[in-house]
Write a structure and sequence with these properties.
- The longest helix is centred in the middle third of the chain and has 14 residues.
- With about 260 residues, the chain is mainly α.
- The chain has 14 helices and two strands.
- A hairpin with a 2-residue loop joins strand 1 and strand 2.
- The protein is globular.
- The protein has a two-stranded antiparallel sheet with strand order 1-2.
- About 0% of the residues have low confidence.
- The structure holds adenosine-3'-5'-diphosphate.
- It catalyses: 4-ethylphenol + 3'-phosphoadenylyl sulfate = 4-ethylphenyl sulfate + adenosine 3',5'-bisphosphate + H(+).
Length: about 260
């Protein structure tokens, strides 16, 4: 079990209205003052949108498809989260994202209990979840994408045509890899491989933090799992809220493949 001190440290508090883990809030100035080097690559994802997947893809490209090199450490150490100033660990589509996040909060003992699915629906649409509102995150980066060196990727696209999207990442990183290496990266970053890979599946994180018996970290990896969770009424209400919140943005998500 987690100590009371650790639990307090892990509660969500707010920075500029965005709920974040207390340990992040306490170190906010350090995080805000972070200065990137010109060739730094930042992966910016909303939680539960395929962060781990793109991390593994980027590292595989960086290491020219060398699987052994990508085994050198667990993924959260190879690509540390910038906002985890002090790692608290002691040792798509919007509907799918909400489903994934719900299951993640069920199993992640460091995040608030999500409550029932009905309760979580309200929490999520109101942005009262860790890292804030999904809508604000997506809109914000979408609006910035042409003003900075930003490669905007969709989980659904990587799912539909991994090779094409991995190629985009490769070009963005200024790398050029042989076709066979690309094919290998596609294979090594597949759902099945990453689910079994101890360097990506978080199996080394203690059960008191991530209880994978409740829900595995690499859970389903599909597009359209929301259909197994949303009632028709919820789906229609979600669509209406989505329309309002995303009004005026040109972003276009596909909801199924
Ligand atoms: P599900 O919970 O819907 O299965 P993050 O890494 O940002 O926490 O995102 C987690 C989601 O990405 C989970 O979705 C997980 O299964 C999925 N995922 C991780 N690796 C994947 C892969 N190689 N292919 C497809 N989906 C993957």
């Amino acid at each position: 079990a987690l100590t009371t001190e650790l639990r307090t440290q892990l509660q969500l508090r707010e920075v500029a209205g965005i709920p974040l883990q207390a340990s992040t809030v306490d170190n906010w100035s350090q995080i805000q003052n972070f200065e990137a080097k010109p060739d730094d690559l930042l992966i910016c994802t909303y939680p539960k949108s395929g962060t781990t997947w793109i991390q593994e893809i980027v590292d595989m490209i960086e290491q020219n498809g060398d699987v052994e090199k990508c085994q050198r450490a667990v993924i959260q150490h190879r690509h540390p989260f910038i906002e985890w100033a002090r790692p608290p660990q002691p040792s798509a589509n919007a509907k799918d994202c909400m489903v994934s996040y719900y299951h993640f909060q069920r199993m992640n003992q460091m995040l608030p209990d999500p409550g029932t699915w009905e309760e979580y629906f309200e929490t999520f649409i109101n942005g009262k979840v860790g890292w804030g509102s999904w809508y604000d995150h997506v809109k914000g980066w979408w609006e910035m994408k042409d003003s900075y060196q930003i490669l905007f990727l969709f989980f659904e696209d990587i799912k539909r045509d991994p090779k094409q999207e991995i190629q985009k990442v490769m070009q963005f990183m200024g790398k050029s890899l042989h076709e066979t290496v690309l094919d290998k990266i596609v294979q090594e970053t597949s759902f099945e491989k990453m689910k079994e890979n101890p360097m990506t599946n978080r199996s080394t994180v203690p059960k008191s933090i991530l209880d994978q018996s409740i829900s595995p970290f690499i859970r389903k990896g599909t597009v359209g799992d929301w259909k197994n969770h949303f009632t028709v009424v919820q789906s229609e209400r979600f669509d209406e809220i989505y329309r309002q919140k995303m009004e005026g943005t040109s972003i276009n998500f596909c909801m199924e493949l």
